[in-house]
Amino acid sequence: MRSGVFALHGGGFLVGSSARAAAVEQPDRYLEDPISALGAGPVQLGDRAIEAHDIFAAILTAVHAEANRIVGHALSAVVLTVPPAWGRIRRDSLRQGATAAGFTDIVFVSSPAAVTTYLTSTTGQQVPSGGYVLVCDSGAAATTLTVLEQSDGGFQQLATVVATGAAGRDVDRLLALHLLDAVTPPGAPQLEEDANDPQWQSVLAAAEDAKVDLAEHDRTAVALHDPHPPVVVDRVALAKIAGPALAALDAATSEVLSAADIDRSHLFLVVLTGGGAALPGMKQAVAAATGHEPRLPGRTDIAAANGALTTATASTPLTTPLQLPRVKLRLTDFMRPALFAASSLALLAFVLMTLFTTNNASGLFVHLAEELISAAAVAAVLTTWSVAHLLPTLYLSTSNANPSEGAALIRATFSGAGVLGIVVSALFGLAIGALVGATTTEYASHAIVPALPVAAGALLIAALARSVPAPTIPTWLAHLRHPLAAVLLGSLGMIGMRYAVHAQISAGTSSVIIRLSAAITGIAIAMTVVRSRRLQVLTAVILAVGCFSVASLGNVRAITLAYVTGCVWWTATRVGVSARVAYPGLRERVHHLLATRSP
User: Fold this and answer.
1) pTM here?
2) Residue 327: helix, strand or coil by DSSP?
3) How far apart are CA 212 and CA 512, in angstroms?
4) Which tens digit of pLDDT belongs to each residue from 133-169?
């Protein structure tokens, strides 16, 4: 059954294939991905504003009616599998829909745990206590990676990450564009992507049907709208078309393993499931990303439902899998605040060591490394940030951590980090000003202006923490770790460049030191702004070579400020990640709003 819903005029819904067929003529009344509506407020479908629980009531009513027909009597119990990142808001909305559909006994089970239970029960391969399982659930709306740990009480969720751009609908879009390229004559305008255009919706539906067909057949003919001829697509071509989408799995795998505080060698089992598991190239992409050959359930279409039913019937701890997972505490979490503080003080000390004054007819002139004041202030805010990260991580790593208390601690520590960071950076600037006898806040501005966005980011994260679902806290906190090596390398590089400017050494030696220090700073910039390990290495090489080539006495300041800008960018991305975790439907709502307002 397709998951889409079509809102009829005057009330009522069409679900499944009937809804998809009606959407071709009236796409504005069709919701392709109902899950995106959960927790996002009312959804506008045509002339109707509809709550998410009403949408799911329609879907589950159809499921309930079919189940009753099959068994011959009314059923009152239902087991619903849900993504591991769901918190109370979306579960409550789904519960409302199930209740309205006629179910009175409602149980939730985490999808990755249910699939793993199904796989182990059907294959006889048991995960040992302390063993780690990576579940890749490739669905139409999202491809999610989750790390589970087997314990005496069942599977415990450690971390979960969504592989951005690797969902089934991303592949549908790429295939649709390929089909249009194949039938559009050279030089002729191509049909544009428009969610409200019936022609685009028709091509997108044809692409989706072709993808499903290629899961079982080597090739298929795709019939497009007149006057275009059918296009033949085979599995090899689809694997190549889907390549850009599947490339996101590598970065997402590194991210979820880092959040779970393990590496690929610790994995006992990799499970591939979901509707996209049969996509050509998917199995190979997961194997390349994880270093393990993924195991597929014998029936990916029923694996989650069957495993969930087994779990719920057995009344194991998996019937309540959405309790707060324990957060992994790393040694570097303890080291980070001290090393960040040392870097900040070292930068500030070098400002004082290289400060000098000159007198001429115009008066007294002060010469100092203003850019290092900015870098020291940003490092100071990152020090308070790392303390704000350490305290809740330390608390949530204990076995008796309380979700509400953990969230309150995150709000308090990041609020304090933002305020304290601004105070410390202001003191840095004022101290330099007092030392040189300045009567204005000139030097304070060099510290406060670059530090303010980082401190504001901490305050925004404190505000967003209230809405972050408890199961996503481990992964989310891992996102908030500023890279330690980047700060250490950045400080070394910036101090090295400034040393070469002021040291009494030959011009040739000074040039070499500046170039090498600039290259180190370039590596630090790459480690700060890029998350993917492979892309990080590539970017680091490019920036190191680039900074080495262009470094000179005249652009030491520019390279240092580029690193400071990278720290500000990192802060902005952390706020963005936090907003996406706290309000998962926000992006879809913004896209929908922009689409409805566009001419």
Assistant:
1) 0.58
2) coil
3) 59
4) 999 998 887 889 999 888 776 788 888 888 888 888 8
